[in-house]
Each structure stands twice: as structure tokens, then as C-alpha cells.
Amino acid sequence: MNHFEYAKPTTIAEAIKLGQASGAAFLAGGTNLLDLMKGGVTHPGSLIDIAHLPGLDIIETLGDGSVRIGALVRNADLAHDPDFAKKFPAIAEALLSGASAQLRNVATVGGNLLQRTRCAYFYDLASACNKRAPGAGCDARGGENRGHAVLGWSEACIATNPSDFCVPLAALDAVVEIDGPAGRRDIPFEQFHQLPGTTPERETALAPGELIIAVRLPATAAEFAAHARYVKLRERTSYAFAVVSAVAALRFDGPTIGEARLALGSVAAKPWRAHAAEAVLVGGKPSADNFRRAAEAALADAKPSGANEAKIELARRILVRACTLAALGTPERIPALPASPFATPAGAIIHD
Amino acid sequence: MTLSISLTVNGLARSITLDDPRVTLLDLLRERLDLTGAKKGCDRGQCGACTILVNGRRINACLALALSYDGADILTIEGVAQGDELHPVQSAFIDHDALQCGFCTPGQIMSVIGLLREAQTGNDPERIREAMSGNLCRCGAYIGITEAVLDAQNRMADAEGHR
């Protein structure tokens, strides 16, 4: 790990001031940042420790019914907050399907939004990586890339965003609250993460020195609570990043779907909201055929970035599965294996 | 640059001066406080061998910068027994052969103590296995570990009931 200066500001204003220094990085839980520093992937000149800033670890319901999650709320505390989990069960399920209990006790909401890709070439200093060293090239293109992006990738970068939490946030129209040198501003969640284009080192809409303060969910996001599921395909049952994942949140008008929210995870450099697929479902019945048509629409623009064509069909099937489970209804309690494709309630159609 | 922090470690107040900001809680415990129970396995948050409790919650000590934990209350494997009397989770690990080589065991036991405090699994073996997935055991003692969790939970509930 490189040597660094350490600062522990006591106010947000002080943190932002310190965060503008060249080479400064904010430290919250540190579960991703310290790992990257130990691997020599990132080497900030100073760490601005924001883990103890007051007032950022609160979950609150605002006057307009929206729910505001402070940036320093720990993943485990959010997932196990009974009121939050009742309103946003797919978010709780996504959180509990990620990492391990130890990591969830430390990892924060803001840090989750800023976690880096798990592309092995990004972590391997002997490999070329445009994200780690702009202009160096991309060894993932001709390498082991069966897990890489199938949507929104560029010649410069085919890495994926590994977050589970961010997938339902994208689907539910979350808003990211920012504070920074130019003051406070809101960023709609879909605009927060950026596609790689020719600048894969730039991953979010944050300007230098800007700090995530909170994530807000609109009151309408709770209307999907009765039919919301997250499904995550992994190479082992627990404590693994997604191969592909999907969230489906449905609101019924009688027997037909009145509104649908769909998003995919680990298919692109950002959580992938599937607007076209949502439109397919609205006004229709929750049938296997309609779910399949929606999945076709969600992946209509997908193309392999390497030896990963199989991921496209896997993504369609996981989206169909998420829709099927969501239509059956949110379970009373999050399953023993959160988001597992193997934990299927009785009556669910697994294979057609 | 010298940096000072105060910690409570296994019930004892400790004042610590660090000459380097890079020290993790794991390195602090092992290299400077002579508490080598927490193990350095992967040092990257993947294996769980370094699990300790901080303010009652289980965390990976290898990914915790010591400076960021000023004022924290830390419990390691060295602090869980009462004199010669083992913690119920320690006894249950012995009774159920929940270890072979023992390298991961301090982390496993601290993780189980954290799991029992979280009170999310009940006596469902599937939920226990899921909640223990952050602790790897290369010897494969997982069956015994799950049995030990169930048994320790029952013993602690019984002990609570007799009070």
C-alpha cells in the first residue's frame, strides 16, 4: 500500500474542502478502497476519513413520503431495517445477496455506489487496462471475458458494474444527493453511473471533491412492495459477484400489470434500466409469454464483447425468472438464500 | 507524523500511538498488541480469518484502518472465555469437531458470536450457512461448524432461561 496523508474532518464542509486536493480520496467503510490500495490498483495521496461525519447514518421518511438513506448507513443496517425492508423488499434482498455478513456490517450506501469493477484485468497490474491507466489498452478484450459486458460497452472497456444494491435503485428511480465545492445538487440514479466510451476511467457524474450525502427513493417507489424481487445468478451460492442479476417490481391494476420496473445487473458498466421491457409488460397479464417478450426487448441491443454470448440469454432468463417471482408476490420474509435462483417458492414456474 | 488513538481491547483501555497511517486493525492487534488470535489469511476481506467484533459487530479486521476506529470497543478471540471457562461457542466447536487445522477457527468463532448477536438465522441451517459464508474453511469443517452454531445457540438460550 502506498503511503498517504490521513485527515479526519468533523463536518461535511471541511471534508469537501479537503477532498478537492489532487490525489485525495474519501474513506468510508474502506472495504473496496483499502482492497484496491493493497493491490496497488489505486494510490491516493491523502485519505479523507468521512466514516464519522455526523448525521449521515440516518434512514428517514420525508414530508413528501420519500425515503432518504444517509450515505454512511451500513448495508446490513439498511437491509435489516424492518420499515425499509417492508417498503423496498427488493433492495433489502439485493443487499443481502451481496458480499458477506462482515463486509455488509461495514460497507456503506455511498461506497456501494462508488465501488469499482471486479474485472480481473483492472486488478492485475501486469495487464493493460484503460480504466486503471488511460490509453494503455484493454487486455480483457482478448482475454478471459465470459463475464464481461454485453450492453453499453466500448472498444476501450468491457468491464461491468458489480453492485447488487444499485440494480433496484436504478429500477425505482432513486436520486443521489451530492454536496461539493459548487454546492448541493441531485443526480437521477440513471445518470449517476457513466458508460465507458473513450474515457472508462470516468465512472460517475461526480466532479472532483463532490461527496455523496444520501440516496433518496420517491414515495411512489414503495407502491411496488407487494411484487418486487431481485434474482442473482452466481458461480457459487453465496458470497460471489453476479454473473447476471435482475430486479422486477410490478404494480397490478386488477389482473393486469399497471406499472413495471425492470433493471439488470452485471451486464454493463452501469446498472441497466430496461425501459423498453417495462413498456412491453404494462397493460398485459403476467404470463410467461409476456415476460419472455419483455426480456427480448431488454436485451435487444445486447452484443457479446468477447466469449460471452451466453450471458445474453442468461440475462433474458434471469429477467423472466425475476418477473415470474415478482408476479407471485413478495415473500413474507427474505428467503434463506437471498436472490438465489435456486430458492424458488412453491408454485413458481422454473422451467417452461 | 504520529497519530494517537484510544481503543478498548477485550475490556482493557489501550492508548496507541501509530507512526504510520497504513496500519490495519489486524496488523495492530497482531504486530503491536501481541494478540495473534485473529489470523491474516488473505488480507483482502475474502477469507474471514481475521474476523473480530467492533462495537459488538463482526467485521474483517484486515480491511479496517486502525485510525478510523478511534474510540472503538474491540473483542477478539482472546477475550471471549471467562478465565478457564470457555465461551459456549468455543465449547460447541470442540464438541462438534468444527475444525481440523484450526487456522480459520478464531475467525469462525468470532463470526458465530457476531451471528448470534445479529439474531437473523433462528435455527435454520440454511440461514446459518448463508450467514457464515464470509468465513472460509479449507479443511471443510462446515458441517461441524453449522452443528456447533445450532448447539451453541441452544446452550446460550438455555443458560438465559435459567437465570
What is the tally of beta strands of chain B? Answer: 5
The biggest sheet of chain B amounts to: 5 strands, mixed
Placed side by side, the strands forming the largest sheet of chain B appear as 2-1-5-3-4
CATH superfamily of the domain at 226-328 in chain A: CO dehydrogenase flavoprotein, C-terminal domain
CATH class of the domain at 226-328 in chain A, named Alpha Beta
Q: Spans of chain B with pLDDT under 50 lasting ≥5 residues?
A: none
Ranges of chain A where pLDDT stays below 50 over 5 or more residues in a row are: none
Distance between the termini of chain A: 51 Å
Mean of all residue-level pLDDT scores of chain B:
96
Number of helical stretches of at least 4 residues of chain B = 5
Number of helices of chain A: 13
Shape of chain A: globular
Helical residues, percent of chain A: 25-40%
Q: What is the strand content of chain B?
A: 15-25%
Secondary structure: helix percent of chain B: 25-40%
Overview of this protein structure:
The complex is a heterodimer of chains A (352) and B (163). By secondary structure, chain A is an alpha+beta fold. Chain A is built from 13 helices and twelve strands. Chain A starts with a strand and ends in a 24-residue tail after the last helix. Helix content of chain A is 26%, strand content 18%. Among the domains of chain A are: 5-52, Uridine Diphospho-n-acetylenolpyruvylglucosamine Reductase, domain 2 (2-Layer Sandwich), CATH 3.30.43.10; 226-328, CO dehydrogenase flavoprotein, C-terminal domain (Enolase-like, domain 1, 2-Layer Sandwich), CATH 3.30.390.50. Chain B folds into two domains: 3-79, Roll (Ubiquitin-like (UB roll)), CATH 3.10.20; 88-161, DNA polymerase, domain 1, CATH 1.10.150. Chain B is built from five helices and five strands; from the N terminus they run ββαβββαααα. In chain B, strands 2-1-5-3-4 form a five-stranded mixed beta sheet, covered by helices on one side. Classes of the chains: A alpha+beta (352), B alpha+beta (163). Chains A and B meet through helix 2 and helix 6 of A and strand 4, helix 3 and helix 4 of B.
